[in-house]
Every structure is written in C-alpha cells, then in structure tokens.
Design brief:
The chain has helices at residues 16-25, 55-75, 96-103, 161-170, 200-211, and strands at residues 3-12, 29-35, 44-53, 107-109, 112-118, 121-122, 128-129, 136-144, 147-157, 174-179, 189-198. With 215 residues, the chain is α+β, with helices and mostly antiparallel strands. 28% of the residues are buried.
C-alpha cells in the first residue's frame, strides 16, 4: 500500500549537498534546509525530507541517504571548514557579456555582475508583491571569467522546488538554505539560496537551466 515518509536529517556543512543529491536521486523530496541553533560548533544543519509511494522503496532511499552521511562522516570525522578551492582574485573582473548571453541584462558594479529576475505573488491583504519587495530570483558573480563564484536566491513555487534543486545539484551548485520568506502569500513562494564555483559561462548556464524549470 502507498505510504508517506517525513523526517529530518541532521548534517554538518560538508555533508549537506552530497546527502541532498542522494535524497533527490532516490526519489525523496527535500522541503527545507536551515539551522536550528546559534553558536553551535561544528555548525549543524537540518534537512527536511519527505516522500510518498512504496514503503520498501522509500525505506531503501532513506537508507542510502543515511549510508552517504555515514560515509562522509567516516572519511572526515572532524567536518572540513572549507570546500578546499583555490582562492579567488583579490579584485573581481567579470565579463558581463558571458552572463548576459545566458541570463539577460544585469548590473555591473566594481567588477562584479548581478542579474535579478522578478516574480510576484499576492498577500492576504490582496496586494501584489514582486521584484521591488524582494520576490525575485537573482545571481551575483565575483572573481574572474575562468574562476568565479555565483551566489543568490531562487524564488520558486511549491511545484517547482524539486526540479530546481535537482537541476542545480546536477550542475554542481551547492544549496545552502531552503525556506519561506513570507506568510499568507498565495501562490506560496519558497526561497532557496545557492552557491557555486566554476567558469563564469558554466555558472550562468547552470542558473539558466534551473530557471527554465520555473514559470
């Protein structure tokens, strides 16, 4: 008979994204990612998961997720403190054209480049909130064209979240938070915060691929 699974996975920073990929690949949904504490060391994150379907299959997916966490924890009993990436340029110098080709016109500032794409929803008062009120998807780029970082938010509807997560993780982009920003909004907007490293053109294409899943 069909069944439902819901729960939390308690993760260190270096476990979050590998664990999330295993959950998504196993047919589980990832519905939230956030901290529960202040001043904890090492920092602990809670990843909320769910799923519906065959209970044996879902149990197997949860087991794979737990196994991945145990694998990482066994390899690094003390959580690593960074991604171990090469340092970024002291002064950013991004070629905006590389981003515009994928995401459209943005804003250049001090060698950095940012693109903002507005969305909208309604609040209980009946008023519409959109781009100027912070309901937007955005991507900001820093570094050089061959070694840059991108960070930003995706504003997604409930039915878009899993597809966007899978797309970003498939492109090697890290997810750092999943939560709501508002109450009483309809349709409900969920915000996911992301962070990735690579050549600018590849990062822009990764964001574009995830954008294509949203309406």
């Amino acid at each position: 008979a069909p069944a439902m699974v819901m729960g939390d996975m308690v993760l260190f920073e270096d476990e979050v994204n590998s664990a999330m990929s295993v959950a998504l690949d196993g047919g589980l949904t990832v519905t939230a990612l956030h901290n529960h504490f202040f001043f904890d060391e090492p920092k602990v994150y809670f990843m909320h998961i769910g799923g519906e379907g065959d209970p044996v299959s879902m149990a197997a997916s949860v087991k794979k997720l737990q196994d991945k966490i145990h694998e990482i924890r066994a390899a690094t009993p003390k959580p690593v403190r960074s991604f171990g990436l090469a340092p970024f340029a002291e002064k950013s110098n991004i070629t905006g054209k590389l981003i515009e080709d994928a995401l459209g016109k943005g804003m250049a500032n001090g060698g950095m480049y940012k693109v903002v794409i507005g969305r909208s929803t309604k609040m209980a008062c009946g008023c519409t909130v959109g781009k100027e009120m912070g309901v937007n998807t955005w991507a900001a780029f820093y570094g050089t064209d061959d070694h840059a970082l991108v960070d930003g938010d995706f504003a997604v509807l409930e039915g878009e979240l899993q597809g966007v997560l899978k797309s970003l993780r498939g492109s090697g982009i890290n997810i750092v938070a999943i939560h709501s920003h508002m109450d009483t909004d309809s349709p409900k907007m969920i915000f996911l915060h992301y962070w990735g490293v690579g050549p600018v053109a590849d990062l822009a294409k990764a964001v574009k691929a995830a954008l294509a899943i949203t309406k």
